[in-house]
Amino acid sequence: MELIYLDNAATTKMSERVIEEMTKSFKEVYGNPFSTHTLGQKAKAVVENARHIAAKNLQVEAKEIVFTSGGTEGNNLVIKGFLKENKNKGKHIITTKIEHSSVLKTFENLEKQGYEVTFLDVTKDGIVDVKQLKNAVREDTALVSVMFVNNETGVIQPIKEIGEFLEEKGIFFHTDAVQAIGKFKIYPKELKIGALTVSSHKFYGPKGAGFVFIDKKYNVEKEICGGSQERNRRAGTENVNGILGTGVALEEIYEKMDKVLKNEEKIQKYLEEKLKNEIGKIQRVEINGGNLERVKNITNVFIENTDIQMLLVALDMRGICVSGGSACMSGSLENSHVLKAMGMDDEKLKSSFRISIGKDTTIEEIDYFIENLKEII
Ligand SMILES: *Cc1c(COP(=O)(O)O)cnc(C)c1O
Fold first, then answer.
1. CATH tag, 16-255
2. pLDDT of residue 2
3. pTM to 2 decimal places
4. In CA terms, which of 34, 110, 181, 332 is 20 to 30 Å from 284?
């Protein structure tokens, strides 16, 4: 039996179209986009075409797209870069307790440098408390960063409401949209988002590639110094091939979005019913964040009296790849900061894990997974 991959929130397998186009371009497009000769201009055209695809699908301007090495760099660039460029805006910044480590650690770092940070709570279902945000903003609040979709629970955050509120207050709003892009259509301008982070390997593109949208109203100081690439916002010779793969993957996922969503919705419903009905007969089962609107590819489940570390090893031995919560936590025995922020006790933390399906996951794979889960438990 082939391996069954149920860890698509950690990363995805590149699509055939992406592999094909990138393989071709590795051979043919090797010029430096900064060179003025034919090969350089060919590489530049590849980069600009991908930028155009990103801008078109997000309905923003091409010059508002900055290519990066992925989500982590994007989050660092926007948050630190905006603050460096806008020192006069104040020393208070706001985020949530459920962010990805690339945002959380950046805020912790800024706190050490003298910024005052508010880490917002979430409800027991895992949605950020907007009322608390509204009470937290001050005259000297320079920036707010709230993720679009949580990577452990899949819960969709109230981005539109936050965006509108912050626009009225004139406060810069960043969202880590890494788990949201490709799951539904996102138009940053409509949502009053100042900057948004995207990572290609979460939607069947290459690892080590991604981009940020930064509204042209705002300036960010670059994190990486050197040449004047990316309109002086990100130095270094462009990752031409990764950028090409980003464009191809984005175009493809937008083309197929309705179909993929329909399939994932069906599979998620099937999976969760099986968990409740079949596993639920053996042990108490709960879907963490299950009462709220979630993306269709992530299910975080609690199974009472189950040691998740041992369960994951047993599943792996049967050819099923699933992860504890987030890729950044695995290997460590640290509990999930997301589930903790949702108020879960130790017992619940140790018995919860994430199943994340992908565009090609089948009912047969879910059946195999459930059969094995049942036996192991
Ligand atoms: C994966 C992920 C990131 C990090 O993206 P990389 O490209 O792997 O650096 C950031 N935020 C969220 C929500 C993620 O899921």
1. 3.40.640.10
2. 85
3. 0.97
4. 332
